[in-house]
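Dig into what follows:

_____
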Amino acid sequence: MYTGTLKSKSSGLKIVYRNTSLKCSVVRRRGADGRIPVRTLDRGASSSAAAAEPTGYPGGPYDTSLLVKYEHHVARHIWFGEERGPKKELKVAGHGLKLNSRVPLALPPQMESWVSRSGLASLQRTSLNKIDTNLVSAFVERWHLETSSFHMPFGEMSITLDDVACLLHLPIRGIFWSPQDVTEELAVELAVDYLGVSQSQAQSHVRSCRGSYYKLELLYDILVHHRAASSWAYATRAYLLMLVGSTIFADKTFTLVEARYLLLFRDLDGCSGYSWGAAALVTLYRYLGDASMYSCKQLGGYPTLLQCWIHEYFPTVGKRGENWNPAGNCGLPRAMRWSYRQGVLKVDDLRPILDELTPTDVIWRPFEDHRAWRVFDEICLYRGCLKWGETVVPYLPDRCLRQFGYRQYVPSPPLDCMMATDIDVDWISYHQSVVDVIGSSSVATTPSEVVDGYLEWYYRVSHPRLVPPHRDAPREVPVPVYDAGPSDPDWARVSTLIRRYLRQVNAEEEDPQFSDLFEALHISRSH
């Protein structure tokens, strides 16, 4: 199947064509500041039409009504070759190695009962020993807090509630948590009442943390002390707080956990009612939003969740070890499938690789072979705001419908969570929002199916690439035309490798020396 381009020097019009199907994209030149100047009037055009034309940035967006914070986004700077600092990758701390040394092979039965009922037991074994900071950073550069999604070359993708349920086996249904403020004085009282430490020790410790925090190291010491003394409630609270502080609630201090989270475990018999999956997602979304800004150099949250999500959906990107094949899984969280392998690619090596990804490089529904242990819950298609503590984020599955097996349409504008007033009610009465999300779509006939016009819309409002194809070329990003790709993952891998090589050497299909490779590419795409 033949794809090519025609470009008129006089009009600046680029036509991308495949067989007899024509797709057009107008190439517009940018000023030195990255904005598109208002176009001079064509003959017969009205002045009101010119005034209404939006400005934009190199590589996108042309229309800035969606990504309203793009001016401060790291992608805007990367396009011009501007890095965050001497280190291009983010500082990302994984607690995996330390947590593995602190989690016993077996808990005492008195503690095991509470931990199991809490809904958090799976977090004891899901953490990667180390994090590939370059791989994680390359994806963070594509995250946008306005849409709670990664902006890939072929559309949006996101970490969904279903992903959290399958990767971490955390409960999705449950209540959100609205905490009270915890001062340093209250942090001391909580430590005395619920962790069994002395008043003087608690005061000294909180003072050393310079705020309402506890050190993860102290929590481990408390666990060891009270376990030896058979003070099971104190030991269990210290253990659970250390566990969430090292995983889903990890912050950018990398050594502390907020004291207010101890309030979650005052009643050890009642902490199972929370939506821990939503809590993990809200925390990660918040930190991804922060880290996507040019001025930020660190990522908090649970990086294992992000990296294992990448491993599941993008089999050709990054290095990873595989502990077991999904077919041989015996009900373990899917994050435990993966292990760390040191990558050789730096973040600036990964950027052009991500730029060249196509829909066929994605496993759109990686957890269908995991449904025996985690049945799909329709609440994962809830469109609304998620809340944990004072943090509220938009959760927008209508922007990543292909991950749910539906045809992707042009989504509604994102929610303004600052104006949300009944988040808990919306969450409980989620069913109508699910109907609204899937009612406008249909089951996809191919895994990556989109409606006509989706990519053209997406390329107006987003930045599909992070790196200009050629630094000395006009800063333009034409809308791609994607061929149908292979459905088998192994053939998809073959197709990706062949295509990547052909692009690296700028091969043309008409060139005889590459004819065999192009034939192999077409064969791989037919499987």
